[in-house]
Structure formats: structure tokens, C-alpha cells
Amino acid sequence: MFYTAEESHGLPYDPFKAIIAPRPIGWIGSQNRKGNVNLAPYSFFNAVSSRPNIIAFSSGGLKDSAENAVETGEFTFSLATRPLAEKMNRSSANLDAMVNEFEISGLTMAPSRLIAPPFVKESPAALECKVISSLTLTDLDGKDTDTYVIFGQVVATHIKDEFISNGRFDTAKAQPIARCGYNDYATVETVWEISRPG
């Protein structure tokens, strides 16, 4: 099978998001200047730098999480895991900006130490981030795509002690979930190791 961006793939569903998979879910906590809190999962999310630690998420349309992060310069990331999958899914509902997704999802707001937005207390790990850059993506023709990318530098990290084994974060024990396109998800349950050459 081969098709260009100008051609139809002919499939019932676009395979793009299933090919770029699995994608970690960035459970983004934010709040606006009025103090209204928002929590939403983003699968267009990842780490983009380790010196310093920087993460990014992108939003199709200027949704509350992206708008709040740009407005206040702060957001949190909480690791979405298999035991929290149903609550994560509930937090993805399209709700009014005044509605607190923590409460709707049955989650606890944990206070950050260096920034204002809370993170998910039940999550094994969370990051406090300050926005260092944001941009609106344009396509090859320079046309606005209505997609916003937010970059945040990690200023603080929270890890529950029970998820540290032999001096390392125990990814398999945490059971992170990832998006695999369509309505499909994956869970990290097995971790294997390979050494890089040289």
C-alpha cells in the first residue's frame, strides 16, 4: 500500500495515529488566572530534551490546557497508568472551562510546590513545568493548522517511593498506558534491556 498526502488511503479509518504508536499520555494539569483548574489527557505528548528536562504537548484547537499554560506559564504532567485508566478517560470529556475534571473523574488534586497548578495525587509520578515556548503550527503552504504546541521545562519531580526499585523508577510496576490510535491503548507491563554499541 502507498499513498501521498494528496491521495485517499481508502481505509475506513486514517492509520496515521496507529502507526505513530504507542504514544505516552500526558495528563496535563493547569489552571487559569481566575484559579479554575483543568485536567486533560494528551496523546500528542512526549519528552523532547533531557539537558534540561523538557516536555511538550500539542493541542488541536486552543483547548483549556493549552490556553491556561500559555496564559499562566505553568502546567503539570501526571503519569496516566492502567489502574487510573477509567478516570483518565473520564477526564477527557469535553466540559465547560469552569468544570473541574479532577472532581468529575474522582481524582485528588495534589498541590505543586513550585507552581500553582495541581497534579494527580494517585499517579506514581508527576512533573511540575514552566512554559519556555509555545507555537502555532503551519503547514507546507504556511496555512494555520489550528494546532498549538506547548514546551515546558521541568522544575520539580514527584515520585511515589514504592515505584523506585534498585535506584530506578520501576516503569513496569507503574503500568503506564499509551495511545495506539483509534480507541486502542497499550500498557507497559514488561520491560527489557539492550545496551547501545560503543
Describe what you observe in this structure.
The protein is mainly β. It has helices at residues 16-19, 64-72, 85-90, 101-105, 171-174; strands spanning 23-24, 26-31, 37-42, 45-50, 53-60, 74-79, 109-110, 119-120, 125-138, 144-159, 164-165, 168-169, 177-179, 185-187. The strands form 4 sheets. Strands 3-2-6-9-10-5-4 form a 7-stranded antiparallel sheet, with helices on one face. The protein has a 3-stranded antiparallel sheet with strand order 1-13-14, with no helix packed on it. 30% of the residues are buried. The model has no long low-confidence stretch (mean pLDDT 96).
In short:
By secondary structure, the protein is mainly beta. 14% of the residues lie in helices and 39% in strands. The strands form 4 sheets. It has a 7-stranded antiparallel β-sheet, with helices on one face. The chain has a 3-stranded antiparallel β-sheet with strand order 1-13-14, with no helix packed on it.
Instruction: Identify the strand order in the major beta sheet.
Output: 3-2-6-9-10-5-4
Spans where pLDDT lies below 50 across 5 or more residues: none
Count of individual helical segments:
5
Query: Which structural class fits the helix and strand makeup?
Result: mainly beta
* CATH architecture classification: Roll
Instruction: Work out the oligomeric state of the chains in this entry.
Output: single chain
CATH class: Mainly Beta
How does the overall form come out from the CA principal axes? globular
Helix content: 10-25%
Distance between the termini: 37 Å
The radius of gyration is: 18 Å
Total number of strands: 14
Order of helices and strands: HEEEEEHEHHEEEEEEHEE
| CATH homologous superfamily label | Electron Transport, Fmn-binding Protein, Chain A
